[in-house]
Structures are given as C-alpha cells and as structure tokens.
Amino acid sequence: MPSDLPLPATHARAVSDALLEKLNRRIERAGGCIAFDSFMESALYEPGLGYYNNGLMPFGEQGDFVTAPEVGQLFGRCLARCVASVLEQVEQGVVLELGAGSGLLAVTLLAELSNMGVLPERYYLLERSPGMRARQQELMARRQPALLDRVEWLDTLPEEPVSGVVFGNEVADALPVKRFRWQGGEVNELGVGRRGGRLSICEMSNAQLTTYVQQLAQQGGWEGDYQAEYCPTLSPWIRGLADSLEKGLLLLIDYGYGRAEYYHPQRSMGTLMCHYRHRAHADPFWCPGLQDITAFVDFTTVAEAATAAGMQLEGFSSQARFLVACGIDQLMAEIVPDNTRQFMILSNEAKRLMLPGEMGERFKVIGFSRDLLQSVKGFAAQDLRSRL
Ligand SMILES: C[S@@+](CC[C@H](N)C(=O)[O-])C[C@H]1O[C@@H](n2cnc3c(N)ncnc32)[C@H](O)[C@@H]1O
User: Fold this and answer.
1) Which of 165, 176, 198, 246 can pair with 161 through a Cys bridge, CB separation 3.0 to 4.6 Å?
2) Are 94 and 124 in contact (CB under 8 A)?
3) For the CA of 53, the nearest atom of ligand 1
4) pLDDT in tens, 196-208
C-alpha cells in the first residue's frame, strides 16, 4: 500500500467505504473473485460512487492529474488546426468529442475554430459519466453561450454515420482492462478477491485470454514471470467509432505504445497506474473511487481495429511532433505576451506539453482517415508508424 499519499477527507472516505462495501458484496456473490475489468469498471464508473461519478473533481491542479487541455490553451488551439484541416474538406462537417472531462478542451477548440472561421455544423459530446456531462454543460454555458446552440450531448454514437472529426484525449486509457500473469508458460487472469479483510489479487482461468497471452509471450520472447494488462473492449470500441464516420478523421491522443513495446520482455510488471493528488503509484486497491486507475493503450490494436473497419492510417506520432506539425511555434510567435509573467506561463505550458520527460513523448497521437482527398494537419512524413 502506498504510504506517502495524503489522507482523504472524511466525506471522500465515506464514498470510498460505500463503494468498497458494494465491491465486497459483489465478490462474495461471485464466489470470492471478480475479474479486474469488472472491478475497474466499478471503481471508475459506479453510479454515484465511482471515480468519475462521485462529484469529487479529478482534474486540474486541485485534483489528481492534469491533462493536456488543462495545462492551458495551446493544446486545444493546435488541435483546432488539425480539426480545421478536416472540416475544410467535408460538407456540413461535425466534431464529436469523446470523454470530454471538464469540458475545457471543447470550449477552447470551439473558440479557436470560431476565430478561424471554420466552425463545425454541430459539436457533439459523448460522455459516459453524468457528473462530468453536467460539468461540461455548465462550463460551456458560462464560457461559450453564443455557440451553445451548436453543442449537443449524446448518450450513444450517432445512429447515422457523420462526416467530420471524431476524437478523444485520454479516453482509451480509461477503458477497463483485464490483468494477467504468465509464469513459465502458464497463464492466469488476475482478478480481485479479499484476503485479511482487504481487497487482494486472486487467480482465475480464462481460456480465450490464455490463447491470446500465449501468442504475446511467443512474439515477445518472455522469460520467467510476466504480468501485464489487456483491454477487451478496445477493439470493439474503435470499430464502433470508425463505423460512425462516413468521411473524415478519427483521432486519439493517449499514452501508450505499439504492441511490441507494450509487451516488451522488460516491461514485465505491466502499465497499470493510479493517480491521487498528483502522485502516481501502482496499487489499484487503495481507496476505490478516490483515485484514477488507467493502463497504457496498445496502439497496434487500435490500428488493427480501425483499418479492419476500412479506415486508412493517417499517422502515428508523439504529442510533441504532432503539436509542431500543427504549428505550435507559429502560434506561440503570434501570442505576444503583455508581460514577463505571461511569457513564463506560456513557455511553461509548451514545456509541459512537449518535453520528453513530460507529455511530449509518452503521449502519442494516432489518426485514421476515410475518404479525405488531402492530408490532415498534424502528421509529418516521418512518424512512428513503423512502431505499430
Ligand atoms: C482521463 S479523462 C479525460 C478527459 C478529457 N478528455 C481531458 O483530456 O481532459 C477520461 C474521460 O473519459 C470519459 N469516458 C471514459 N470512457 C468513456 C467512453 N467509453 N465514452 C465516453 N466517455 C468516456 C470519462 O468519464 C472521463 O470524462
């Protein structure tokens, strides 16, 4: 258990205890062990109690982590240049943002597209957390009242495919994952049970997962003990997104690797990560509902699913390279700070987005197009596609 985490406030602790009670009952009903993806689903999305549904704000400096749009406006303004390069090529183009979090990116993006004279016909937001959706609605009404009539919240993907841009920043990493252990050729799914009055790892068998993991082990040349994650919903999710685009761009930004790096023999403890008050640690059982739980994204799976759905790989890039290709340097040159303090804020923002030790290299951007005649802004010829 992580020892240096700040103590949660009493009301937050009560939320976590209530969720824990639910989980305990579920584990008991299941005979002592539930799958990790089912635990993660509950820890993040349990109505009223899960991390994204309990009303305790996870984003920003006061929360648990900072995403690129929360760093400042540069990210959203660069992304607008990519989005505009697609909207200029389609008629009556729309934007569909997945998992919009606080709604800040939507606000920045819409403002920039409006300044550029390339507003989408509709700006859809598809957000699975009702609490997050309410925050987005409040922020949009306060910050962009004049554009509100273009904005619409959806419960599901549109029934009819749309033209334009479908995108998500840090959404794929929030899809629940399964965990497994490979020991000298034997595979076990790692579930969640109870021992000594606490949540703990239990072992389950899963024939389908075993077959897949054995393939990974062979391709990766694993030796000894190996533990990692696998996201069972990633492929169908991507397929659904691809199918919802008649013409345009599907864009995902997240931390992750191509499969060979993801399941590299040296990454033998997996990529699962938890965040609480800007501290990262690896114990998913600490205070369920109060911390974020994520896993890196296997971008090879993303690419296989999107291309199987008939989309074309537009590019796979680091966030730093993507922002450069979107023209972050010109944008910064255009913003003339009034004073030294403003200048410092802007350059710190750029550093956080671009430096390799910050978000610049860990975060990747992957884009797939359908029926576009011209290339999309943001992807340079020399990208990372050989690592998929
Ligand atoms: C880590 S946050 C990222 C928020 C925002 N995109 C940003 O960059 O600040 C993940 C968000 O995705 C939402 N989410 C997770 N899975 C989703 C899904 N399948 N469809 C739509 N939203 C989802 C969560 O509720 C949360 O708002």
Assistant:
1) 246
2) yes
3) 25
4) 999 999 999 999 9
